[in-house]
């Protein structure tokens, strides 16, 4: 059996839309896609439909993530991959996904849009993921299990051995989707290394965080080739705007990679500096250990702190609605100057308190 046998029958049987760019390539006089023969006033090449899965980008991302090109599907951010997975694997009204709150909200949103049931397997009190507790929540209806590592908004890493245990236990039953949006800040091994041994593992990567391209919307699903082929049937015909493809290629060329490595080092150093500094400031109860590019911080007065930061022009994320995070704000690591401004506002709250 293949993991794709778990997908919706009608999706497996689907004949995908065949776009002009897929049916024919090469040639110099392009009269097959009803495009304008002229370039717009600015933006050379933008009169042409983009390549659905640009070869150079697919190969570059495969090299970046240590897999083969056949294991890569590029789309509009990891958000699109989450949506495609839920739509391909979950029948409305029948199937379910497992999420481990407090975690990224898009998994449940995508499931709700599709009419799939959301089963919660909450993280432990220390926000670690208990594989046995999670497996105990899996019913025959579950097709996808989402694991976020480092987890947003708690920042902790889920060990590869835990993910492998879950994948082992769910072999032939469900696909384990590992969201590694912040992996570059953690330095721990990717779950993509499990693909050879486990056909029911899929990994989400993105250029939105470490690679500074949130505005370009470029995310990657890394999975077995048959899962990639399945999702290619339902992805939009031209998911990637040409300008985003060009920006992504620059971000992962030699200069781009070198710049990103330096920036990651700066952000990680700032994160560790703030992690020890913040608890010495008035009104700070503690800082959750984080392997991501943010710190989730407990405050005596989180709402007042939020307002004080906002009054200084600094916007952070109020994560108080999450279970176990009622007194928390999530603060992205900024430039050293930006971080100094945060520290300045928090230090000044001594007088206010
Ligand atoms: C930011 C983030 C993403 C990235 O989503 P994109 O659509 O690629 O921008 C994915 N997962 C988590 C947990 C995130 O925090």
Automatic annotation (TrEMBL):
GO molecular function (one): histidinol-phosphate transaminase activity
Reaction catalyzed: L-histidinol phosphate + 2-oxoglutarate = 3-(imidazol-4-yl)-2-oxopropyl phosphate + L-glutamate
Modified residues (N6-(pyridoxal phosphate)lysine): 209
Domain Aminotransferase class I/classII large: 42-344
Pathway: Amino-acid biosynthesis; L-histidine biosynthesis; L-histidine from 5-phospho-alpha-D-ribose 1-diphosphate: step 7/9
Cofactor(s) essential for the protein: pyridoxal 5'-phosphate
InterPro entries: Aminotrans_II_pyridoxalP_BS, Aminotransferase_I/II_large, HisP_aminotrans, PyrdxlP-dep_Trfase, PyrdxlP-dep_Trfase_major, PyrdxlP-dep_Trfase_small
Domain of life of the native organism: Bacteria
SUPFAM superfamilies to which the protein is assigned, alphabetical: PLP-dependent transferases (SSF53383)
Entry keyword set: Amino-acid biosynthesis, Aminotransferase, Histidine biosynthesis, Pyridoxal phosphate, Transferase
One GO biological process term: L-histidine biosynthetic process
Entry's EC annotation: 2.6.1.9
Signal peptide positions on this chain: none
Similarity comment text for this entry: Belongs to the class-II pyridoxal-phosphate-dependent aminotransferase family. Histidinol-phosphate aminotransferase subfamily.
HAMAP family to which the protein is assigned, alphabetical: HisC_aminotrans_2 (MF_01023)
Subunit structure, as described in the record: Homodimer.
Protein name: Histidinol-phosphate aminotransferase
Lineage, top ranks: Bacteria, Pseudomonadati, Pseudomonadota, Gammaproteobacteria, Lysobacterales
